[in-house]
Amino acid sequence: MARKSKSNLSELYLEENKDQIYENALAEIQSFELPLGTTLRSVYDDQPNAHQKFMEKLDACIRNHDREIEKMCNFHHQGFVDAITELLKVRADAEKLKVQVTDTNRRLQDAGKEVIAQTEEIIRCRVQQRNITTVVEKLQLCLPVLEMYSKLKEQMSVKRYYSALKTMEQLENLYLPRVSQYRFCQIMIENLPKLREEIKEISMSDLKDFLESIRKHSDRIGETAMKQAQQQKTFSTALQKQNNVNYGRNMHLGRNRILESKNEITLKRTFEDEDEHEEEVLTAQDLVDFSPVYRCLHIYSVLGDGEIFENYYRKQRRKQARLVLQPQSSMHETVEGYRRYFSQIVGFFVVEDHILHVTQGLVTRTYTDELWNMALSKIIAVLRTHSSYCNDPDLVLELKNLIVVFADTLQGYGFPVNRLFDLLFEIRDQYNETLLKKWSGLFRDIFEADNYSPIPVANEEEYRIVISKFPFQDPELDKQSFPKKLPMSQSVPQIYMQVKEFIYASLKFSESLHRSSTEIDDMLRKSTNLLLTRTLSSCLQNLIKKPHIGLTELVQIIINTTHLEQACKYLEDFISNITNISQLTVHTARLYGLSTFKDARHAAEGEIYTKLNQKIDEFIQIADYDWTMSESDGRASGYLMDLINFLRSTFQVFTHLPGKVAQTACMSACQHLSMSLMQMLLDSELKQISMGAIQQFNLDVIQCELFASSEPVPGFQGDTLQLAFIDLRQLLDLFMVWDWSTYLADYGQATSKYLRVNPSTALTLLEKMKDSSKKNNIFAQFRKNDRDKQKLIETVVKQLRSLVNGMSQHT
Question: What is the tally of structural domains in the chain?
Fold first, then answer.
């Protein structure tokens, strides 16, 4: 029972819980706040038949609500009925009120029609007034915009692009934002970038025209700048001279007053000329309108593209620089070619310097220095190449002057030009080479035109003319009366004058090189030394070697070189005077003319000896001895007498030569004559010699000895000249006297009578005489008188051969 009662209680408890769940679900459904899905799911997910039970609960709940509604309606029904009754009573009064209101409204409408019309008119006027006010306000905002835009168009039409950009900037920043809602403003806003691009294109086009213009006008700009620099230099030089004159006035007031007055007049004229030139000379700004580049720079700066413009400008100018630096192939042919080349370069850098100083940032000093260094390297390379083609010293000098003006001009604009002056020293060497070539031709012409005879002077005037050209001094000659002859030929003063002209020409190149007087003096002396030691020396050597130059001409050349050598000290004084550098200065170079003329003189002396020997050989070649004659003619040979007469007359010409030269020439001729006669006796082609031929040969040698003893050239001591024939004399005496015993006995002794007779020479000649005796019986008388003499000859031959063999073994 107990368990059954417990189970009944638990079932009852579960039943109560289910009812409570259904109640809660109904409450949730009625609340309309919570979602029904969860509630309904909780009902249907429960035990089976829960749906039926829930529907029963729901029906019970509905019935409860219907009973409550019915109670509510029953409670208010009487009030509703009463309200309907009251409303029916009021309906009649409402009809009357409606009629009255309608009538009142009609009358009111009729009375208010005029007021309404006036009111509407007032409203319309007020709207118009408001609209007009609005329009005026908007027009006041739009009119400045339109005025500015009109101003912009006008500025564009008159090419005031920088002002147009400023106007656009005001439009964009100040005016257009106020009226941006209007369509015309939108059109303006869309057009402004196009206008900016148009301005950029137009300004860039103007810049290109400007670049083309300055490219065309660069040479004229450069020519103008170089002319101004040259005038400034001339002015400074004249001013310096004036200062020197003023200084000199204090030192030599009385003596130099007239000269100073002339200098002042000259200086005044120079200044007046400079003023006239300054009025005529145009500046770079006068020749080229720089406004396009300024305008373009401002425009691009305003547009924020300043860097793009700078890069474009510099790139284009670099291209133009390369074109300017490219010379014409024929530039070296004329000075105008160089002048045009320099003018274009100067014009280019004058423009760049102007742009540098009048703009900010477009061209910088670093950029111009870089451009100049590039250009300078190219210029130096071009000048090196083209100047090497110049063979005319005048053209090289003109080139030097142009380079100096070119360098001075650019230096005035702040560009470094030291490398150009270094280049001038290279060109100076080339200039000296061209001068040397030119003077080589001048010297050759002078030597070819010279007659190589002393200069005749008929009177004092002619004498002074010669002295004015050449520093000649001879007290003995001054004592002689006119007419008289100067020892040198006409080429000497001409050569001296040409050397001075060369010094002047060399000095012209040294001017304006910004070098000290000491350096200029050193350059002049070096170039003069080259002229003397190389050019003049070569011309003299070639002259001496020419076949048409005879002994007389060689003698005159020796005399000429002697006087030119003496004049070298005057050339040194001449250089010192024009450079104002004393010769006592430690670093002063000396002229090498002394060695030049000494070498030429030695060459001429050697040529004299050679030509004398050649002449002697010519006479020897016409000798015609009968080597088999039985006895001599009793007189000397004709060719030899002619030779001696020739030598005698030749040595008379040598009277003007230095004593040693004449003596050496005479000794050389006698020695050569002696050697030639000896070779004639010992000629291998000569097989036989008779005693008669020996006697005839002896007569010729006697004439030679007589000539030597007659002292053809003064200054020989005793019989010095006769010693040239001593070998022949002793040999001939040996055979003429037939003194073999003495020769053989005394051979090898210093006191031997026939010391100069060589055994081989004696043997050769004796064998020729021996061969001759076999044919002509020249020794028949000896055999008849004394047959032992033949044996003696054989013995002598054997002894001579033994001596010769002994000498060869000893050797």
Answer: 3
Residue 176 belongs to a domain: no
Do 795 and 651 belong to one domain?
yes
List, for residues 385-420, the tens digit of each pLDDT value.
Answer: 887 788 888 888 888 888 888 888 888 888 888 888
493 & 405 share domain: no
Q: Does residue 713 sit in the same domain as residue 601?
A: no
Report the half-sphere exposure of 358 (CA within 13 A, side-chain side). Answer: 14
pLDDT at 498: 92
- Cβ–Cβ contacts within 10 Å for residue 687, how many? 11
pLDDT, residue 713, reads: 83
Task: Name every residue whose Cβ is closer than 8 Å to that of residue 531 and which is 6 or more positions away in sequence.
Answer: 435, 436, 439, 499, 502
Give the DSSP letter string of 135-195.
Answer: HHHHHHHHHHHHHHHHHHHHHHHTT-HHHHHHHHHHIIIIIGGGGTTSHHHHHHHHHHHHH
- Which phi and psi (to 5°) does residue 685 adopt? -75, -15
- Which residues neighbour 753 within 8 Å (Cβ) at sequence distance 6 or greater? 730, 739, 742, 743, 746
pLDDT at 264 (0 to 100) = 41
Report if residue 75 sits inside a domain: no
Residues 348/324, Cβ–Cβ less than 8 Å: yes
Residue 428 domain flag: no
Q: Are residues 553 and 452 in the same domain?
A: yes
User: Residue 556: pLDDT band by 50, 70, 90 thresholds?
Assistant: confident
Higher pLDDT, 294 or 275: 294
Contact of 694 with 735, CB cutoff 8 Å = yes
Residue 365 lies in a domain: yes
pLDDT value, residue 330: 78
Q: Where are the alpha helices (DSSP H) in 622-687?
A: 638-653, 659-681
Phi, psi dihedrals of residue 456, rounded to the nearest 5°: -85, 135
State the residue range of the domain holding 787: 642-808
Query: Are residues 347 and 221 in contact, defined by beta-carbon separation less than 8 angstroms?
Result: yes
DSSP characters for 497-548?
HHHHHHHHHHHHHHTTS---HHHHHHHHHHHHHHIIIIIIHHHHHHHHH-TT
Tokens 């090497």 belong to 388
pLDDT digit string, tens, across residues 146-200: 888 888 888 888 878 778 888 888 888 888 888 878 888 888 888 888 888 888 8
Q: Show Cβ contacts of residue 644 under 8 Å, excluding neighbours closer than 6 positions.
A: 703, 704, 707
Mean pLDDT for the stretch of residues 623-642:
86
pLDDT attached to residue 122 = 93
Cα 345 from Cα 325, distance rounded (Å): 7
In this model, does residue 123 exceed pLDDT 90?
yes
User: Strands, DSSP E only, in 27-154?
Assistant: none
